[in-house]
Amino acid sequence: MYGSTNLSEEDAKRMNTTVEDSDKLEAFESRIARGEKIEPSDWMPVEYRKQLIRMIEQHAHSEIVGALPEGTWITRAPNFRRKLALIAKVQDEIGHGQLLYSAAETLGKTREEMMNDLLSGKSKYSNVFNYPANTWADIAVIGFLVDGAAIVNQTINSKGSYGPYCRALERICYEESFHLKQGHDNVVYLATGTKHQRAILQDAINRWYRPLLHFFGPPDKMSAHSEKLMKWKVKLASNDDMRNQFLDMYVPKIWELDIAFPDPNLKKNSDGIWEFSDPDWDEFKRVINGGGPCNAERIAVRKFAEEAGRWVRQALMNPSEKYQIPLA
Amino acid sequence: MSSLDPRVNRLDFKKLADGNTHTNSHLITWEVFHQEKRGKQVVHVGIVHASTPEMALILAKEQYARRGKTTNLWVAKTSDVYTFNTEDEDIFETTPEKTFRDPAFYKVRDRIEKFQNKNKVAL
User: Fold this and answer.
1) Which terminus of chain B is less hemmed in, N or C, by CB atoms within 10 Å?
2) Total domain count, chain B
């Protein structure tokens, strides 16, 4: 559902100091400049590999963990059709996680290493999934707006330079367009329904507004930049640009239902740039570092799955088979 | 743990030891090929992790045949697939230059017309 391209300051510093073989680097960079894709067996700079692994892995974790808040409501979906759609969506998200883990594996990090890093907290997932889905309206808002935000991000990233990641994202975007449509359908049904349905929808929008603004990461003026990541087409748009694109596409679709966002300053300026109140970036940092309402539960559930399923994986292991990095 | 998710509330967290996965205990990968319709090419679509070909096929069905049309899926162990090194890509470089292999290379109309004009061939 989400891939973050924000660099830590330490990484940004190192990226500008690592020395690479200049001939190979030049060939690599001109290949990217020509719009060609990089494939797993190609030469690539150490930092390119490292940043891609970090980003794709984080994206994969987000898909897997992202299925948890939505899964909350499978047992209590309001009717059979909604239940089928929600189960399908959750299965898709897990499938997306698998596709992304595969793409990251081609860069040389094994799936188990990634899983370990998720459980130990070393590697992150999207902040937005550390919030609870309190009512059925949360499922509608997640399906429409969180997936809408993810599509903005993923469509942009699918134009990147690493072949396996782009291919995974194309497949993912295609499936997410169903998530978005069923989410919109769900939102519209609630918005055009009873007073109570409108009230729970408004309540969900009120709670998701800030996490949605946080979704694209800190404002450009606050985040570490790397010209190199842009040049290498690992990062393709700035956080603020993506956030603006999201607001432009989705705010009107909520307003037309006579549902409000909890921000009197939310408006589009004449230059096409959306204005909004400060969404509390300290909260964003607090939640990323484990202080959100659901961080502990999300990791505990993943740990449970990992440990309770271990004996099955071990029983299936064939020790004479040697793992090899997948091809594409 | 008290969760909004009734399924999470049913999990017995106490039974678990605290620990991570064991590294290098993961299953091998299989390259997956998908045929959309009878008569179409079988196309590579991705990988799955599995211990046997049967399990690989089941997982491939879940992963690559969830929607749309499918006639068949193939799986092959990653380690059984041989490829060229991408650094040797240049061995294919001159192929597009071999225009004598293209139908468009063979143009005879001009020659026919010239022949007809010269010999006053009536149509």
Assistant:
1) C
2) 1
Q: Return the domain boundaries, chain A.
A: 25-316
Residues 287-316 of A with CB under 8 A from B: 296-297, 300-301, 303-304, 306-308, 310, 313-314, 316
pLDDT of residue A40: 93
In chain B, residues with a C-beta closer than 8 Å to the C-beta of A112 are 21-26
B102 lies in a domain?
A: no
Q: How far is A227 from chain B (nearest CA, A)?
A: 27
Collect all residues of chain B within an 8 Å Cβ-Cβ radius of residue A300: 1, 13
In CATH terms, is domain A25-316 a member of 1.10.760.10? no
In a domain, B51, yes or no: yes
Its pTM stands at 0.91
Q: Is pLDDT above 70 for A6?
A: no
Domain span at residue B60 reads 26-94
pLDDT at B75 over 60: yes
CA distance linking residue B81 with residue A327, whole number of Å: 9
Residue B19: inside a domain: no
ipTM for the assembly: 0.87
C-beta neighbour count of A20 within 10 angstroms: 15
pLDDT reported for residue A3: 45
Q: Where are the alpha helices (DSSP H) in A77-146?
A: 80-105, 111-120, 136-141
Per the prediction, chain B carries an average pLDDT of 90
